Amino acid sequence: MAPKMTVLFVIFLHSYVVLASDPDPVKDFCIPNTGVSSTILPCKNSSLATVEDFVFSGIKHPGKFSKTGFSAMAVTSSVFPGLNTLGMSLVRADFDVGGINVPHFHPRATEIAYVLEGRVYSGFVDSENRVFAKVIEKGEVMVFPRGLLHFQMNVGKSPATILGSFNSQNPGLLRIPNAVFGSEIKEELLEKAFGLSAKEIGKMKKRWPGFMIRHLIPLTRWDPPVVGSIFLTRWDPLVVGSIPLTRYDLMPFLPLWCSASPETHPLSVTMKKLDRSSDTIILKRLMCKAKGRINSLSLAVDQLDDG
User: Fold this and answer.
1) 187 annotated as belonging to a binding site for a ligand
2) Fewest Cβ atoms closer than 10 Å to its Cβ: which of 73, 161, 168, 296?
3) What start and end residues bound the annotated signal peptide (predicted)?
């Protein structure tokens, strides 16, 4: 009797894991109520929703290429409120000629990549270290299973564009070079693991700095820092002049595309309008450095990238 019960339990557990995903919505939609000072935003009254809550124009144009020839603009409920509670998000990825999307994975989502333009060498590695890769062209689709390492490279003679769709509102992203060399793993361990000298490890750390984002909170005042999980929500930005400033709590080693409030930290960047019909802004790269933790740096972030 015991062996049968064990088999049934294993089958049940496997089914539970397979079916796990973002919670099913209990309403037609849930536009975040940004007027509530909470890190978990409830839905506003559905009668107050407008068509603008369900339309997003921030990815009509490509972003600025990083040093790897890659640009990514994520679309989550933090910028597109109509996605809230629907269990999905997307990203526009652009590749310069020869550009790459470094090996990375999404711990909470499967991704479907659709090629809008160009020829892109795409693939993933399974848990047995088998590589599944080929060149996909305009109109073709490839799927990257949840949690598996995957990568992309433009092998065409012109820029390429991919639209990626995720089955999670918050898919997560871990880029392998940044996660390994940009984190605080002891250098001695990295030297032994990769057979590199301390000097070589130092070069890799400079090339692949890491970043950490603490919980994003609705910004209505300059208040103490908060500690939370990596999760993005929609917010009511505080406007200084014509620049919306959004509050993040950060660790001192991050590279970000950011705009800093002069009232909270002596940093500045050059900004360029991406689309006159929207509030989307491209921000040049800024290295935010400090000896200790940055407690109250206010940022307007359009995209996070490795370059």
Assistant:
1) no
2) 296
3) 1-20
Question: Following DSSP, what letter does each residue of 82-128 receive, concatenated?
Answer: GGTTSS-EEEEEEE-TT-EEEEEE-TT--EEEEEEESEEEEEEE-TT
**32: Cβ–Cβ under 8 A, 6 or more apart, which residues?**
41, 42, 43, 44, 77, 81, 84, 233, 234
Which residues, in sequence order, are bridge partners of residue 112?
143, 165
**Is the pLDDT reported for residue 12 higher than 70?**
no
Better pLDDT: 183 or 282: 183
Q: Would you state the structure tokens that stand for residue 196, as one six-digit string?
A: 């590199």
Pairing of strands 89-95, 160-166: antiparallel
Alpha-carbon separation of residue 100 from 6, 130, 143, 248 (angstroms): 46, 20, 18, 28
Task: Answer yes or no: is 104 a known binding residue.
Answer: yes
Q: Is the pLDDT of residue 195 over 50?
A: yes
CB of 307 closer than 8 Å to CB of 68: yes
Model pLDDT for residues 229-269, shown as the tens digit of each residue: 232 222 333 333 333 344 443 333 333 333 333 233 323 33
Per-residue pLDDT tens digits for 44-72:
888 888 998 899 888 888 888 888 899 99
- Multiple choice CATH, 61-172, 3.40.50.720, 2.60.120.10, 3.30.930.10, 3.10.450.50: 2.60.120.10
Query: What pLDDT does residue 229 have?
Result: 29
| Rounded Cα–Cα distance for residues 234 and 232 (Å) | 7
14 assigned to a ligand binding site:
no
Asked whether the predicted pLDDT for residue 291 surpasses 90, the reply is no
150 assigned to a ligand binding site: yes
Is 106 annotated to bind ligand?
A: yes
Per-domain residue ranges for the chain?
61-172, 175-208, 211-307
Stretch 219-224: mean pLDDT, rounded?
Answer: 35
H or E element in which residue 152 lies: strand 149-154
